[in-house]
């Protein structure tokens, strides 16, 4: 209750409860109730994080009672569903790293150049047309791109550049994922570049700099913290993308960094297990949480690195 | 002859009477605006303006806000070319080359390399002090480290900043105070040895002490470079400039030696503005 | 001519050539992403258009590719989206109102904001594992429409919170002050003024979030969406009292993207045609939703002048 309410209402409340006081009290209580409900809703975000951590750790704990951390981290065979199950996560990690590495090698340069082009070079109408299209690209379901990678891009590569490419391979899905995450890199980087004040660009142009010199030497360094954020987002997307690899890379865990081979990523393995019917509590069931935890730790690592980098490059205009 | 009206003007503007002696308009022309018209889309922002700019002198542009003085200044290094819908008519001749700076065949980048600019608010780049000053050289493709270092030091000395920053050249320019940042921007403009230096209200974002040091710097710099300065501060125009042009509603009303213009303006409009009867 | 000037002009010509080259390169890079979008859509359409007819939309899946349809999966998608929307919108909008209008700058607020930011970057498969562990097993909701809707709701929650906060922030302070000056309580100010004025922006965020959810396969696979469902969930209205039933929430389900995934995974190419046709339907839904959101945002930008 606010001090003003208290001063005005307390003496009256002692003697007789007036309808006016009742109304005010009701209004006050209602406000507090609403605020508390809204706080509870906001706390769902915190609860979600806690639940993610709790579930992943809890189910993985069961897994690591059976499988030693050493075998998990150093084993090069992953076959939890076979007669003689082996639980070395390296094949899944190598698949994930290969696919994400190629995807980022495509997405970061393409996305950054696209962002510079849209922010500094493109005429107004091009920017206004391309940005919604890039947004649409972000919304295209992963299955659709999986179909595209398996049934259009792979045959295309087989017919043209790489006749020896197997039907399932890491290259095609990785390339598709790379282009898929270009919009994330481009839109976040472009926002950061557009936030660079015009006065800074004018300072550069006034020195006789060209557009490209201004973009590369002034705007990009000034937008570094936003660009780093875009890269972190892209890296998380690249390792977390599921359907494209599950469809087009094959589902065979394979300890290789050769993109021309088929392999499974962490995400693809989880999909493969989920399609079957593993009993709750079995080691196979728990294994998807253990690899899920590995994936979560990878993205957490990117985010920490990004946070640190952003702090280093934070600019105050 | 000092009339009553002149005496009042002098008192208002703190001009020491000794300065108020008449001088001849002399000197070599560095640049000249001839029948310059400028349009922002449909808006006619500059109307038939003519202005001589004398070599190694300071020329001030004064007038109420919105009179077109910044617009005029930005014509001299073609900053308006950065935005669509702007149009120039007429000429700005650069001497002794006799080039029309506004000619469509003249590259705005070349114009800006020869005519530098310092802005209203200090706008250093997110780089070190050293790299800020070296920027113009790098843009010109200069790779020789020794030459860059020499030019940076010279420019910082000319901008009266060398002693303050010589031990912290690698620090970000953002760490400096506002006045120091503006001097970094001046050093940046000086490092490439421009023929004309444009100042667009360079002290409007600074405190009085920083303002005084920038004004001193401008007075010193005219030994080396031709200066055109926009200011809304009449005292500043009196303190730093040799010539003054008064602009109003996109027209150049009067141009003359600063002392003459402030003490005995020829036009009634100028006198009204200077005596505060404007409006 | 002055030789130094000639040198300068040569340098500028080189620099401008670089500019020109980069402008071309930038256009090409931008077009790569745009072209892949069009190629993917065109590819789907060319492969699948022959299967797109009324019977495809009204048939259950089947072992015979030419008889299989997407009835159970589009109905499944629709009801899962319903659950997602009903749970994510109040949660997201409420959380955003709290963060934007009520929260003081303290550790709790910081913690919530940090969580919202981080959740936005969590891969969708992790949401699937969360839903599998929490909704399916711990809360015992099973592999049902309810679990699926809630999983997707949590996934799009950060998007809705961010979009709502942005549009609340766009309402200028003087509107708030005007309401307070008339004696409105904080909640009245929010419900009478803030929410109506920012409704367009909130809607845009919700639609984009829903468009993302409708195409999302991953979290639903982990909670055991089936791929062969030859029945519809029980209707929400029954003949006997109390006439309303929530049995449909507890029904097993499939959704469009999962049906499509299943057909892609078949070796027979006749099923690939079905997958393409299902993909076309899915793309039409996503594109319509996104197109509507873009249109809505354009309208808001054009109309609202504070």
CA radius of gyration of chain A is 27 Å
- Helicity of chain B, as a percent range: 25-40%
Low-confidence blocks of residues of chain B: 16-22
Mean pLDDT of chain B: 85
How far the N terminus sits from the C terminus of chain B, by CA atoms, comes to 29 Å
Q: Helicity level of chain A, as a percent range? A: over 70%
Topology of chain A as a string of helices (H) and strands (E):
HHHHHHHHHHHHHH
CATH homologous superfamily classification of the largest domain in chain A: MetI-like
CATH architecture of the largest domain in chain A: Orthogonal Bundle
Write down how many β-strands of chain B occur, each being a DSSP E stretch of 2 or more residues.
10
Beta-strand proportion of chain B = 15-25%
How many distinct beta strands of chain A? 0
Mean pLDDT of chain A equals: 85
Oligomer: heterotrimer
Largest sheet of chain A: none
The major pleated sheet of chain B works out as: 6 strands, mixed
Write up what this structure looks like.
The complex is a heterotrimer of chains A (317), B (279) and C (306). Chain A is mostly helical. Chain A has two domains: 20-66; 72-316, MetI-like (MetI-like fold, Orthogonal Bundle), CATH 1.10.3720. Chain A contains 14 helices and no strands. Chain A has helices spanning 3-15, 19-66, 69-74, 90-121, 124-139, 142-159, 171-180, 182-194, 198-205, 211-222, 224-240, 243-248, 266-275, 283-313. In chain A, helix 2 (19-66) crosses helix 14. Chain A is flat and about 80 Å long. Chain B is α/β, with parallel strands linked by helices. In chain B, the strands form two sheets. Chain B has a six-stranded mixed beta sheet, sandwiched between helices. The two termini of chain B are 29 Å apart. In chain C, helix 1 (3-48) packs across helix 11 and helix 3 (71-102) runs parallel beside helix 6. The chains are: A mainly alpha (317), B alpha/beta (279), C mainly alpha (306). Chain B binds chain C through residues 97, 107, 109-110, 113, 140-141, and chain C through 2, 5, 8-9, 11-12, 15-16.
Short description:
The complex is a heterotrimer of chains A (317), B (279) and C (306). Chain B is an alpha/beta fold and 279 residues long.
């Amino acid at each position: 209750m606010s001090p003003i309410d208290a001063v005005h209402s307390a003496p009256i409340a002692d003697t007789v409860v007036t309808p006016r006081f009742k109304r005010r009290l009701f209004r006050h209580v209602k406000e507090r109730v609403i605020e508390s409900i809204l706080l509870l809703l906001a706390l769902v975000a915190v609860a979600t994080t806690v639940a993610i951590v709790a579930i992943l750790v809890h189910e993985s704990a069961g897994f690591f009672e059976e499988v030693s951390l050493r075998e998990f981290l150093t084993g090069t065979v992953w076959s939890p569903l076979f007669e003689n199950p082996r639980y070395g996560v390296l094949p899944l990690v190598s698949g994930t790293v290969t696919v994400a590495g190629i995807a980022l090698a495509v997405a970061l340069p393409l996305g950054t150049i696209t962002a510079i082009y849209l922010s500094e070079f493109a005429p107004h109408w091009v920017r206004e047309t391309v940005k919604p299209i890039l947004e649409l690209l972000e919304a295209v379901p992963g299955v659709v791109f999986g179909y595209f990678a398996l049934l259009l891009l792979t045959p295309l590569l087989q017919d043209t550049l790489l006749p020896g490419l197997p039907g399932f391979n890491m290259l095609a899905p990785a390339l598709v994922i790379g282009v898929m995450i270009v919009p994330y890199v481009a839109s976040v980087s472009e926002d950061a570049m557009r936030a660079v004040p015009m006065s800074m660009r004018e300072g550069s142009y006034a020195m006789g700099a060209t557009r490209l010199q201004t973009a590369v030497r002034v705007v990009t360094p000034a937008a570094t913290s936003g660009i780093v954020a875009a890269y972190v987002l892209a890296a998380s997307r690249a390792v977390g993308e599921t359907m494209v690899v599950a469809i087009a890379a094959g589902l065979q865990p394979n300890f290789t960094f050769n993109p021309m081979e088929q392999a499974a990523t962490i995400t693809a393995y989880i999909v493969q297990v989920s399609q079957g019917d593993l009993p709750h509590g079995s080691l196979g069931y728990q294994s998807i949480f253990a690899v899920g935890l590995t994936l979560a730790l990878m993205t957490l690592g990117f985010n920490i690195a990004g946070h640190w980098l952003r702090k280093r490059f934070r600019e105050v205009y | 002859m000092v009339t009553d009206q002149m005496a009042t003007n002098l008192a208002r503007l703190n001009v020491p009477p000794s300065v108020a002696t008449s001088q001849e308009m002399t000197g070599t022309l560095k640049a000249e605006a001839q029948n310059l018209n400028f349009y922002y889309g449909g808006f006619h922002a500059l109307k038939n303006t003519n202005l001589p700019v004398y070599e190694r002198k300071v020329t001030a542009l004064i007038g109420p806000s919105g009179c077109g003085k910044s617009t005029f200044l930005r014509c001299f290094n073609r900053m308006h070319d950065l935005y669509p819908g702007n149009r120039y008519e007429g000429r700005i001749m650069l001497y002794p080359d006799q080039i029309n700076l506004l000619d469509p065949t003249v590259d705005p980048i070349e114009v800006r390399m020869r005519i530098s600019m310092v802005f209203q608010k200090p706008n250093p780049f997110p780089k070190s002090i050293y790299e800020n000053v070296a920027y113009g050289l790098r843009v010109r493709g200069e790779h020789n480290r020794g030459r860059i270092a020499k030019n940076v030091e010279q420019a910082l000395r000319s901008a009266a900043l060398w002693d303050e920053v010589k031990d912290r050249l690698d620090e970000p320019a953002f760490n400096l105070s506002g006045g120091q940042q503006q001097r970094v921007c001046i050093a940046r403009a000086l490092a490439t040895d421009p023929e004309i230096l444009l100042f667009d209200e360079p002290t409007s974002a600074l405190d009085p002490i920083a303002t005084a040091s920038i004004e001193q710097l401008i007075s010193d710099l005219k030994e080396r470079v031709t200066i055109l300065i926009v200011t809304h501060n009449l005292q500043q125009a009196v303190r730093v400039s040799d010539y003054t042009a008064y602009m109003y509603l996109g027209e150049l009303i009067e141009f003359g030696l600063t002392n003459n213009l402030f003490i005995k303006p020829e036009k009634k409009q100028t006198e009204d503005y200077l005596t505060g009867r404007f409006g | 001519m002055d030789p130094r000037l000639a040198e300068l002009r040569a340098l500028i010509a080189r620099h401008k050539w670089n500019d020109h080259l980069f402008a071309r390169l930038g256009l090409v890079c931008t077009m790569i992403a745009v072209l892949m979008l069009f190629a993917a859509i065109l590819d789907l359409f060319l492969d699948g258009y022959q299967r797109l007819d009324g019977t495809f939309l009204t048939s259950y899946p089947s072992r015979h590719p030419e008889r299989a349809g997407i009835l159970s999966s589009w109905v499944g998608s629709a009801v899962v989206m319903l659950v997602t929307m009903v749970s994510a919108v109040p949660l997201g909008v409420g959380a955003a109102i709290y963060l934007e209008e009520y929260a003081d700058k303290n550790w709790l607020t910081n913690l919530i904001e940090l969580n919202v930011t981080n959740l936005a970057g969590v891969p969708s498969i992790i949401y699937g594992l969360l839903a599998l562990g929490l909704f399916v097993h711990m809360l015992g909701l099973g592999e049902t429409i309810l679990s699926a809707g809630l999983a997707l709701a949590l996934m799009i929650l950060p998007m809705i919170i961010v979009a709502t906060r942005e549009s609340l922030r766009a309402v200028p302070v003087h509107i708030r002050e005007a309401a307070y000056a008339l004696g409105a309580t904080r909640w009245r100010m929010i419900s009478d003024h803030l929410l109506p004025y920012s409704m367009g922006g909130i809607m845009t965020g919700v639609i984009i979030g829903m468009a993302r959810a409708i195409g999302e396969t991953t979290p639903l696979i982990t909670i055991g969406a089936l791929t062969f469902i030859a029945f519809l969930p029980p209707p929400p209205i029954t003949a006997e009292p109390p006439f309303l039933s929530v049995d449909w929430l507890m029904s097993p389900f499939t959704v469009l993207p999962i049906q499509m995934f299943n057909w892609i995974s078949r070796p027979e190419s006749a099923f690939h045609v079905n997958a393409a046709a299902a993909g076309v339907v899915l793309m039409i839904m996503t594109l319509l939703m996104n197109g509507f959101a873009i249109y809505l945002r354009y309208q808001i930008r054009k109309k609202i002048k504070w």
